Each structure stands twice: as structure tokens, then as C-alpha cells.
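User: I've been trying to design a sequence by hand for this structure and keep getting stuck. Would you show me what you'd pick, starting by listing the structure so we're on the same page?

Assistant: Good idea, let's start from the same input. This is the structure you sent:
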């Protein structure tokens, strides 16, 4: 399964793709995070500082199984989404008319950022989250909600930021 965020090479989409792949792998579903483009300099620097590996570039999703983290509209995804099999979708707004012939993992809540839902997935499945991953999701939330601006964020986003900021260091 290829896990990806939006087509734009921003920190939020890449952090969500990496975290969603982590969750799927911990659930026994082999997943690899991918991105449509090379990351912005800020995203690359943040990943390096957090000790996270950037997603590899992927030109097309055609014929692949995919897990979408963040906006799931086709115009924001890597080309070939219409010819891919969506096995998971996580979005902070809605699932935008996605349909699947097989059962899929679907999470859609009205939050400011998909990273908040991904944090909820870690909690729901009782999974530990590494310090670097928590930092990536925290940064994603702050980026997407414009630093928790009212109207751009929800109480769930604020609570997730607080929780991730307090994640203890694990070896």
C-alpha cells in the first residue's frame, strides 16, 4: 500500500503520509509513504531535525493500492488516483465521494487537520507514537491550522497538539 498526503510538497501532507504508513505497518498492512513531489526546504529540514525519513517520490498511482492522508480529492492527489485502489482514507473534512469495491479504513472528522485524526488512530489502536512522529504530526497540525487559529482549528486539534507536545522521549 502506498500512503500519501496531498500533491503539494508541504510538511503536513508528508508527515501525515509517513504516520499513516506507520500505523498501517503496525497493523500488519505493508505500507510505504510516498509523495508526488520533492519536499519544500522547510519540510525537508523539519524531517531531518525530527529524525524522520522523507517519503519517496511517486509519479503515478495507477494500478496501486493507496492510503490517503489529508485531502482525498483527486485534484490534490498524485496522478493516477482514479486508476488506483483506495484501501484507506483519512480526511479532516469529508471523504469527497470516494468509493471502493472492497472494505477500506475510513476516518473523517471535522477537524482542522488530518494529523489530528491520525493521532486519534494511534490512540484508538493503542499504538505508541515515537517522539519524531509526534513532532511531525504536531508541526503538521500547526501548519494546517495556521497555528491553531480560531475558525481553522477545533478543540480536538488543540488537545492533540497538547498531547503530542508532551510525548516522552523513547529510546
Amino acid at each position: 500500500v502506498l500512503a500519501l498526503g496531498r500533491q503539494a510538497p508541504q510538511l503536513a501532507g508528508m508527515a501525515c503520509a509517513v504516520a499513516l504508513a506507520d500505523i498501517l505497518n503496525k497493523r500488519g498492512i505493508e505500507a510505504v509513504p510516498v509523495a508526488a513531489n520533492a519536499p519544500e526546504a522547510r519540510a525537508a529540514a523539519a524531517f531531518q531535525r525530527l529524525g524522520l525519513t522523507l517519503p519517496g517520490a511517486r509519479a503515478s498511482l495507477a494500478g496501486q493500492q493507496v492510503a490517503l492522508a489529508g485531502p482525498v480529492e483527486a485534484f490534490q492527489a498524485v496522478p493516477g488516483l482514479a486508476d488506483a485502489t483506495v484501501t484507506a482514507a483519512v480526511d479532516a473534512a469529508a471523504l469527497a465521494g470516494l468509493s471502493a469495491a472492497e472494505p477500506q479504513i475510513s476516518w473523517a472528522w471535522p477537524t482542522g487537520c488530518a494529523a489530528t485524526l491520525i493521532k486519534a488512530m494511534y490512540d484508538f489502536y493503542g499504538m505508541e507514537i515515537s517522539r519524531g512522529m509526534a513532532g511531525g504530526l504536531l508541526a503538521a497540525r500547526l501548519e494546517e491550522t495556521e497555528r491553531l487559529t480560531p475558525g481553522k482549528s477545533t478543540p480536538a486539534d488543540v488537545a492533540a497538539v497538547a498531547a503530542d507536545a508532551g510525548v516522552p522521549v523513547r529510546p
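That's my pick for every position. To get oriented when you compare it with your attempt: DSSP finds five helices and six strands in the chain. Strands lie at 2-4, 32-35, 56-57, 65-69, 85-91, 105-108.
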